Amino acid sequence: MALIAISFTLTACGGSDSGDSTSKAAASMSASQPAMKAADKTGMFAGLNGKKVSGTAQVSGSGVMLSGFSSDEGPDLHVYLTNGTDEAAVSAGKQLGAVKFDQKSQTFALNGADTSAYSTVVIHCDKAKAVFGAAKLS
Fold first, then answer.
1. 29 within a domain of the structure (yes/no)
2. Is residue 35, in this structure, part of any structural domain at all?
3. Residue 115 domain-assigned?
4. Dist CA 106 CA 49 (whole Å)
5. What is the rounded distance in angstroms from the CA atom of residue 133 to the CA atom of residue 138?
């Protein structure tokens, strides 16, 4: 019974499969961008719960930047700073804003978040309460 509920929940935030389903490699950083500081952290996205998410997350003192980003479509996707990929970690994490599933480069303000307190950037469908993907920061 629980499997049916999980399947239904993930379907609520599912997208169409009509587009190109192959994920592309993360775009390289442009030469005009500043060099990473020692405190900056990066991670590569991986899909979770049967969803596809790819690209790179870079966390710095000025914000979170997604590059080469793509995700399965969802009606209510948001980016979070967390310490894990389960619902409890997302609830305890810091939401940074709505993310567009098909926009390769996106930047999010930290809104006072202490980035040293978080280890993961998560793409979460708030409507379905489902994690689409995550980037472990290092």
1. no
2. no
3. yes
4. 23
5. 16
**pTM for this prediction:** 0.76
CB distance 77 to 66 below 8 Å: no
Sequence letter at residue 25: A
CB of 103 within 8 A of CB of 69?
A: yes
Task: Give the chain's length.
Answer: 138
First and final C-alpha spacing in the chain: 38
Domain containing 118 equals 2-11+41-136
Domains held by the chain: number: 1
CA–CA distance, 45 with 128 (Å, rounded to integer)? 20
DSSP 86-104: SHHHHHHSEEEEE--TT-S
Place of tokens 């190109």: 20
**Bridge partner residues of 136 (DSSP):** 120
Token pair of 136, please?
């472990």
Tell me, yes or no, whether 32 lies in a domain.
Answer: no
* pLDDT tens-place string over residues 16-64: 443 333 333 333 333 334 444 446 999 999 999 999 999 999 999 889 9
In sequence order, the β-bridge partners of residue 21 are none
